[in-house]
Amino acid sequence: MNKKYLFTVAAIPAAFVVPAVAGAEEVTTLTITGNPLVGVTLNADLKGAPAGTYIKSYQWYYVEGGSNKPIPSSTEATFKLPVEAEGKTVLVEAVTTTDTKYTSSPIVVPELSLKIEKPSFEGYGPQNNVLPGDTVKVIGAKVTDTKGAVIQSNQITYSYEWFYKTGDVFTIISGVNTESYTIPKDALETNKKDISVRVIAKVGTKRVESDFTEVLTVSKQPIETLVTSITNLRKSDSKYQVTDFASFEANVKALETNYQALSATAKASITNYDVLKRALADVEAISKLNKQLDNIKTVEQKDLAKYISDLEASYDKLDLLQRSLDVNDTLYSGIKALVKEPSDTADLAEVRRINNEIVALLNYDSALIKYAPNSVEALQLAVNKIEADIAKLSKNYQVAVQNQTILKDAKQDLKKIEQFIKLFDKLTANTTANKQVTIAKSIRSSYEKLTYKQLLLVPNDYKVKLLNAENAEQDMIDRLNADIKSYIGDKQYQIKPTADTWQGYVNNINKIVSDYKSLTKNSAAKIIDYDRILIMQKDFKAAEKVIKDMDGYKKLANTAGVTESKLKTSYSNTLKAYNKLTTLQQSLVYNAQEFLNSSPTITVGNNGNEPTDKADAEALKVKIQAFTNVTSYTFTQFEAEVEEATKQYKKLSSPARKYVTNYDLLTTATKDLTGVRAFHKKVQAAREELDVAKQTKKIQSVEAAYAKLPANQQHLAKAQYEDLLNNRLVDTTAPDISKLIQDIAAIETDDLYKVSIQDIQNLANQYNKLSSSDKKRVTNAAILTAAIADVKKVESFMKQYDKSFASNPTTVIKAFAKLTSKQMSLVSENVRQQIIAKEKELQQANDIALTLIEDINSLVQNGDYIVTLEAKVAEIRTAYDKLTASEKSVVKNYSKLTQAENDLKKVAEVHALYVPDTNGNEAARKAWQTAYGKLSKKLENLYKNMYAGDL
To answer: Averaged over 93-120, what is the pLDDT?
Structure first.
């Protein structure tokens, strides 16, 4: 195939290829297929053309006057017959790419035969009426072709002829040819009461006329009838015209249906539609209440009281007009039958009995409040029984039960004890001693916070568990005290370490310190001389360094080739370090004696020339060597010997001095004298101080200084030091720490303070005057600290008591109940008695309140106020105003009293508007009727009782 030729041909528009049929030889014909009707599409169909024929164009023609007239824009193989083709002859011509023409036979398009349906008025039927001013619209008038031509809506042109009837003749309304027409407002006055219209449709040159519509009558009668019917719904502004609710409801709904069927203009003419709209709403409200009343049997018992209350409240909101739909007060009577005011004597007697049981939960002994049931189980049983009895009461009477604060506190206390006991779950058989003490401390903290009432509910076995846990560290305390005592003597360490035992002692001391740190604070306070074991730990470290230096010297001395000067330097430095140690530190240096006995031999060389005073030098060397044993001297002796040796040394010639190879010992001795003289000055200053307190502080300074002196200096200063301590001034006012500890221990017994606030403050003053070192000796200071905190709490409470007890005792009673057991015991018995007396008084006042509750409940009987309401309300108001603030709080139904007062006021205000029904009083009378109509049923009945003459 020639692809280039195929491409060219394919580019020609509207070209069709006629396929070749093998062995076929037939005449080529172009025919038109399709039904030749307006709106139908015809097709050009070429048959019998040679194989490979390509059609490049088509043209459709109208055959007119013996010639073919091309139809514009009709050059496709298909042709949709337009309206203008009706009654005309049509043919089609096809041209191939070889310019061969094929022409179809002509066909005739039949003329249109139009048909139109009868029109009608939109929204109106044969029986409807139209109001003057309404706009009516024609609908329907569908146009079709009887022969089946397809006519599009945009091919149809409509016109309208409107007529009105005059007598028996219809006259056309000129100037009106649209589908809508507005009825003239004066149509009735001009006697244009009946309206009809016909529709004329035109398709192309054909025209068809419809039948006339049904006659539509212009009339105001339906509007007037509806207005009248709506007006007749009421007898007056406050009462509907009703004898049977169901009939009234059906009538109202029918009127609403008629109204909604009206045109917008007609609806605007119903000037009293608000009356119908209100009636619809009122009918719905009454129907809803009737259904709620009918459904009362389906309400669960637990929801019944609220359901009835809501039903009653909904009815009370109805005004007089709405209530007029409650024919014969059927609905009102049904609701009243359900409502029961809490006024029965038997019910109030049960409330009083329960109140007494609640009060009986408490017992007052020794001006302290505790629970009468003396165990958790007994109290829980009593609380459960009271709650069960309250639950049996109706909701109205449940709120009348008083003193429920006591019941609430009891429940909270039971829960508090339950939570407290839960704390013991942390104590198990596997709990370590220090862990037990830590847990016990937390438990003790919670225990101390319990009130007296709560404290007495704690089972004794838990108190024993707490004490055992607190004392769990006692074995460790005893062991540590024994270990420390075995190490620490009065003045000397009790141990003599060796090279083999040294590390064992170090480990034991470190363990003592570690175990001490694991103790709780209170247990640690029971460890004796722990501060000295810390000093011993430091002394071991200091001694260990010197021991290593001595071992180093020994090793150096045994090393061949070491010079005398190096050996002497090592010995001299080590000896100096040793001499700087305190006596206690030196006692730990196990290799000291070996070191001291192995001083190096020093060779003195003078080039063979011996000085004449060599003998003096050697004699001085022997004398100085004696200084190594300081303990054989008193300070005075040592001072004299050192000074004399110093003079002798200075007299020696320079060559002779070289033979004094231990001169460094003289230097050390001189420094020791200097140190001791400085210490003696401090001793003398303390000795000369005549003020006991000041001397005590100075002696404390001397003691600290003495502890830091090297061993040699301690020996030389010992006489003066001990003389100072043995002859210190006696402080007759010095604190007796032992007595203070005993006094602190005695301030509490059985979880109550046995002393006054002043006694605790006096002990605190004594403690605060102690020196920091003396305070550390008071091992039970924590007890005093806790007592001081309790004192502050009680003092704060007493300020509240003094300020508010007379005016607001309830607040003070609540604050008193929150005090812990110990805090409560600090409140004077007189104050406790006054609080208890007031609490009992308030409990008794509750009975007075119950009487008032009963009186208030009696204001309403069977849903209506009593006849003597005004006088009874005044009587109750007088009694209520005499109550205290706390007593008033007991009257839980006080709102009913204020409601009655407000209702009396409302009724009086309506009565004040009353005027008789006489000429000239219409406006005022109308105002009174409006106000009266807004009264609820209850207030309407109250008005009738109080102002019957107005009605």
So the answer is: 94
